């Protein structure tokens, strides 16, 4: 058991999170007591427990105490078995949001040195993060605190995948019709404080195409009427069992220029155990979307699904590359509260040694560049999720949303609206996550 003594609940939570992410397989078994006393210019940290008894005074030099403490703990515990050194002492979702300030202010060489000295991020990871930063450069330079983007959430799917923890509902015609009506009302009655067109529009879920052509078209028409056209318009088509030629043609006619077709894995045995439709018809729908004229197609893969070996995951990545979509997003399976895998206490015993590095090598050798990255807790392999793109096809929405560069207006169940102030800080509001409340409120 890990016991942390300090007056600040935030500091205690931050230090505990460090142990949980750095020693994911053994933190629950650790017998540790940490007493931390923070003063103006220095702090004391006492650590005692099985095989350890140390007392240390650390200077505070214009740095937040939790960074100093984590750096000390990183050096102290880095030789423990199964210690995860990835991303050094950083445990947050958006590492580049912090590190971009360093990349912007210093030379590459100085940035790499600072990343290790301050955050214990090694050179290989520093190089990769810097590469993502440079691939975001054009979007970053063109971003503005007055720009906004629109997100619309549609929480319906043909079925619920075992790994899914999102606010999704098996498609129900009556509920879909009411949801569509209420969603359109919210869109039409939103008090828009921005005079320009949105930088991007993103309709996600769930599986937006699962609600059928008629309802989806009504929602898109309401969005276009309210906000006008945009340079990037994404609709997640996710599951091929939600598609029809009519839906794809409608999306194209409405100006949608980016869609997601997500196989998650090309291992049919794995897919068959996830409560998800087979990918045997994936080629038909991918090339039909190409024929209809979609310029940018994204494909999602999840690494670490039940039954996946390292070899089968790499084979799925190679298969995705063969299709040559403009974007490929590689996720690592995260065991989120609410998913069937979490409820069933799924534990992955596969050997994924060096998988992340091999997946990166495959992508970089195939003309794909990493353009955004975020991290998830409770991942079975590594915490990183990486979006790759071919040249000039990076998603604006993914970058500005993940790096929090522009305003986001969110509609629908559980969607977030984030409005920036002139200091670059967000005022955030989150819609209700209760579907029945959303359906019954009017």
Automatic annotation (TrEMBL):
Keywords: Iron, Iron-sulfur, Metal-binding, Oxidoreductase, S-adenosyl-L-methionine. It is an enzyme of class 1 (oxidoreductase). GO terms for molecular function: coproporphyrinogen dehydrogenase activity. PROSITE patterns: RADICAL_SAM (PS51918). InterPro entries: Aldolase_TIM, Coproporphyrinogen-III_oxidase, Elp3/MiaA/NifB-like_rSAM, HemZ, rSAM, rSAM_sf. Residues 142-365 form the Radical SAM core domain. CDD domains: Radical_SAM (cd01335). Its EC number is 1.3.98.3. Pfam families: Radical_SAM. NCBIfam families: rSAM_HemZ. This is Oxygen-independent coproporphyrinogen-3 oxidase. It comes from Peptoniphilus gorbachii. The lineage of its organism: Bacteria, Bacillati, Bacillota, Tissierellia, Tissierellales.
């Amino acid at each position: 058991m890990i016991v942390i003594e300090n007056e600040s609940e935030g500091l205690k939570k931050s230090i505990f999170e460090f142990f949980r992410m750095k020693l994911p397989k053994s933190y629950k078994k650790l017998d540790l007591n940490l007493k931390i006393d923070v003063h103006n210019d220095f702090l004391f940290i006492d650590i005692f427990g099985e095989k350890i008894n140390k007392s240390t005074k650390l200077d505070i030099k214009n740095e937040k105490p939790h960074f100093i403490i984590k750096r000390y703990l990183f050096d102290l515990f880095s030789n423990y078995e199964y210690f995860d050194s990835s991303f050094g002492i950083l445990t947050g979702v958006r590492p580049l949001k912090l590190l971009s300030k360093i990349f912007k202010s210093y030379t590459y060489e100085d940035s790499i040195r600072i990343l290790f000295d301050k955050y214990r991020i090694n050179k290989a990871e520093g190089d990769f993060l810097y590469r993502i930063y440079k691939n975001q450069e054009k979007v970053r330079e063109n971003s503005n605190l007055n720009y906004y983007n629109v997100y619309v959430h549609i929480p319906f799917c043909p079925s619920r995948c075992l790994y899914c923890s999102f606010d999704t509902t098996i498609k129900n015609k009556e509920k879909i019709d009411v949801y569509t009506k209420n969603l359109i009302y919210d869109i039409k009655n939103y008090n828009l404080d921005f005079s320009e067109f949105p930088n991007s529009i993103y309709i996600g879920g769930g599986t937006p195409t699962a609600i059928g052509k008629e309802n989806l078209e009504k929602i898109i028409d309401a969005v276009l009427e309210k906000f006008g056209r945009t340079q990037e318009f994404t609709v997640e088509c996710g599951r091929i069992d939600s598609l029809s030629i009519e839906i794809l043609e409608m999306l194209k006619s409405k100006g949608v220029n980016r869609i997601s077709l997500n196989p998650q894995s090309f291992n049919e045995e794995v897919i068959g155990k996830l409560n998800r439709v087979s990918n045997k018809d994936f080629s038909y729908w991918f090339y039909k979307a190409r024929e209809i004229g979609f310029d940018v197609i994204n494909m999602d893969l999840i690494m670490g699904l039940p039954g996946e070996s390292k070899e089968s995951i790499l084979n799925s990545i190679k298969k995705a590359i063969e299709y040559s979509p403009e974007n490929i997003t590689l996720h690592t399976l995260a065991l989120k509260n609410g998913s069937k895998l979490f409820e069933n206490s799924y534990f992955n015993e596969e050997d994924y040694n060096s998988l992340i590095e091999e997946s990166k090598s495959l992508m970089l050798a195939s003309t794909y560049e990493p353009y955004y990255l975020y991290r998830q807790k409770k991942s079975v392999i590594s915490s990183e999720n990486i979006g790759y793109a071919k040249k000039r096809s990076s998603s604006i929405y993914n970058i500005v949303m993940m790096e929090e560069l522009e305003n986001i207006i969110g509609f629908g169940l559980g969607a977030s609206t984030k409005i920036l102030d002139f200091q670059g800080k967000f005022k955030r509001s989150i819609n209700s996550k209760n579907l029945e409340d959303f359906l019954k409120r009017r």
